[in-house]
Amino acid sequence: MSAPDQLTAEDLAFLARPLLGFLTVAAGPVPPQPRPVWFEATAEGTIQLFTGPDTLKVRRLRRDPRASIIVASPATERERWVAVTGSTTIETDGAHDLADRLATRYWDLDDPVRAADREALLSDQYVRIVIHPETVRRLAF
To answer: Which residues form the Pyridoxamine 5'-phosphate oxidase N-terminal domain (predicted)?
Structure first.
């Protein structure tokens, strides 16, 4: 049995689906402003995503590394969600590989438009944000 601050095998299977996560970063007195993101849950139990190195979320995380992500099933399915809260690290390696894996997961790359989108996506510079879970909450019924 997993500790409450770890992702379970069932969580990892759910998070392997091409669902959007909603990322919220700590912003002090500024109200949270969740953003939809592509993400990947790793075998080590972290959550990672990629973004531009100069984005607002990266600037905020450099000031305060706390973040959370919530992922929910589509409305056409039984209710299920997983929420992860923890500190983050900003990594300069692995972001392009992650972007490539996620493009494959989220887009039909047999579609020439999406294949071109992937090429454009991979031409940009990125960093990898890694959330290290401190609290994991879930609901499924």
So the answer is: 8-121
Cβ 41 vs Cβ 16: under 8 Å: yes
pTM for the full predicted model: 0.93
Dihedral sign from CA coordinates of 92, 94, 99, 105 = negative
CA distance 86 to 118: 30
User: Hey, which bits of the chain come out as E strands?
Assistant: 21-25, 35-37, 40-41, 47-51, 66-72, 80-91, 127-140
Q: How is the chain split into domains, by residue range?
A: 9-95+126-140
Among residues 59, 24, 23, the alpha carbon closest in space to that of 38 is found at: 23
**pLDDT attached to residue 82:** 98
Where does 9-95+126-140 sit in CATH, by number?
A: 2.30.110.10
**pLDDT tens column, 46-104:** 999 999 999 999 999 999 999 999 999 999 999 999 999 999 999 999 999 999 999 99
